[in-house]
What we know:
CATH topology of the largest domain in chain A: Cytochrome Bc1 Complex, Chain D, domain 2
Number of strands of chain B: 3
Largest sheet of chain B: 3 strands, antiparallel
Shape of chain A: elongated
CATH architecture of the largest domain in chain A: Orthogonal Bundle
Helix content of chain B: 55-70%
Distance between the termini of chain B: 35 Å
CATH superfamily of the largest domain in chain A: Cytochrome c-like domain
Oligomer: heterodimer
Radius of gyration of chain A: 26 Å
Helix content of chain A: 25-40%
Strand content of chain A: 15-25%
Largest interface: A-B, 29 and 30 residues
Largest sheet of chain A: 5 strands, mixed
Distance between the termini of chain A: 93 Å
Order of helices and strands of chain B: EHHHHHHHHHHEHHHEHHHHHHHH
Strand order of the largest sheet of chain B: 1-3-2
CATH class of the largest domain in chain A: Mainly Alpha
Number of domains of chain A: 2
Number of helices of chain A: 13
Number of domains of chain B: 2
Amino acid sequence: MNRSELISRIFVITGIILAIGAPLVFWTRTPLIHARMAENGGWNPDVIEAEVGKPLQLKITSDDVVHGFAVGQMDMQNVDVLPGKVTDVTLNFDKPGIYTFYCTRWCGLNHWRMRGTIEVSGSSSDPELVSPPIYVSLGLDLDAPHGAPVLPQQVPSAIRGQQLSIQFPITTYQFLNYYRSSSPYQAFTDLSNTTLTESQRWDVVAYTWQSNTTTESLANGKQLYAQNCAACHGENGAGDGVFADDLATAGESSMQTMEGATKMMMQSPVDFTDPRRMLGANPALLQGKILRGGMGTGMPMWGSIFTDEQIWDLISYIYSFQFEYK
Amino acid sequence: MAKVELTHIPFIKNALKSRYPQLAVFIMMLVGYIFAILAGLIGTPVGSHNFSIVFVWIAWWAILILVAVPFFGRGWCAVCPIPLPGEWLQRGAVLSPPDKSPKWLNLRVPKMFRNIWLQNISFLLLALFSSVLLTTPNITGIVLAAMLFAAIGLSAIFERRAFCRYLCPVGGFIGLYSQTAPIELRIKDKQVCVTCEGKPCYNGSSAGYGCPWDVFPGGLTKNTYCGLCMECIRTCPHDNIAVNLRPFSADLAKPSTRMDEAFKAFIMLGSAMIYAGVLLGPWGAFKDAAYNVGTSAWFIYAVIFLTIIFVILPGFFTLGILKTKSALPLKQRFASLATALIPLGLMFWVAFSLSFVLTNASYILAALSDPLGLGWNLFGTANAAWQPMLTAILAPAQTLALVGGLIWSARTAQKAANKEKVSSIQVIIYSLIVTSIMLWLLL
Lengths: 326, 443
């Protein structure tokens, strides 16, 4: 073989090796978290390991549409994950445990299924005692019917209720424990020993519910609702979110298969403007439904994502679909 | 305009005769091609940000159809990396003069395949899947790799560049349209070839290989099957090969009588029109049907696609020329007059490509900086926003291309008709109708 042929072959082989090797090396050295619509697999990987006190640097990319990334129960800014782009996120964990990361953009009908976990190992200097949620201690059956048998003729007004409360002290009803464990209908019934008319009793109930929240809580609840709930339950709580029709259609076919494994019933989202359903539900029940999710429905569990405070804020806001607050 | 022999210029002649400049380009192209395969397979699945999609279907296509084919004919084939690994393995060398004994089977391609029907089929196969192919990086990666391996496989079995000549899905239309290009490779003096012993340009010699495209340069009258590989410039012992600058569409004065080439003209004309309607048009149902490969909607789309190309377009063309007074058989008239559709088809493709290339060209900047979608920013352009380019001149440029194509086609029809001693009016009316449809589809 002459010299020029040898050199040519070296160049050719080097070029081929570089063309194959370089992308493979860079590709294997850049672990990406891929976001895909749940129908196409969701997060990959969907389990990430981390250590307490050691920054977790993630590179996230979307393989299809715009997604978002956030970690539940963590004080962090949601980040957008754009198709074909890489978003860098650095997380710091000070407590061990299993954290849930999830999509924050309404990417598709099964958007809420886009979840994964970060398993954080290590020790915590400040172990926390965990107490069971109220619905557990109250022994509530989250799936039992809870319709209110009597409904107000007009939207109960907290403003009118506040004026009435001057004449009829309602301190008992304003205790947090009472509020959280009683449905509006229960409070309405408890007020039956007063001389108030039915309409006035509903107004006092509205005031009671308002006095158990704050403007900040309502605002926070509204924001959480808009980001996480409105896609299905609708911006105005009427169960008519952008995915509602698709969920109903999917529900008609009754069973939907995800990844060939889990079959689950899809139902139309709950209508929060329905007074029968909402006035018969106490905050503890709603907390349970949010924490656990709707068994056998499309309602996901939010217990691993929202903090207790966020859930109570959300519940306050959901009741605002029934009451006229000031 | 008279021909100008470019190889008369020493710099050009030396650059073409030497193997090194070509080899350098080959290596770069092969590296780029393999990188595109890898990018398609392991890069981001988002087509608009993947090197394989952006550089193959936007950048390469733009260069090919807007520059290379119209101005350099088979200029792309001269630097195409697809046949190289197969050819090098076939020869057992990258650069050295040929060995006496062939390395592999070296069979002759069977006569029934020595036409461009296989290329017509391979193009149509890609065309029918194009909505998925053009947007899905891993499919693009697989197709690019398949072409590379098909070329290697054919080189192992058959002599010369069987893949380029008989199977390459783009080679067929490049050859067809290269007849319009102002570049040609021809012999200088026919008598020299007649008396040349051994015909090393075709059979090879110690100076180089026999024509990889299975063409005897001494008989070259058209660009269609000359791949501009420049091997004959190296092997000709009489310095009788020239690369000339010539008037546009010089080859069209010699109409073809081959049905495979005539149908190629219809395939390209029809594909451009269907693409304009499906990819650029406002009809979502067509887009969905084209994209959802394997569904019943896609099968209907495929049937419509093939019916337009093989029945409607040639059918109306045949009806048009049926009544023309001529002693020539209809088949010959059909093939000969279809020559007029070559410049028209080319300009259809130019007009169609202008639209999606200018719309999507800004993706090139982002993909250049982050070709695999790994979050790189090599040239600081990774976050370049998508921005359609030159939108103000798009419609005028497309109109100009189509009207220019129509005039060019009419002129070609007249020449072909004069040669065959028939009227050209039917072909001109046909061209006018399809151009009007294309204008409507694009604008």
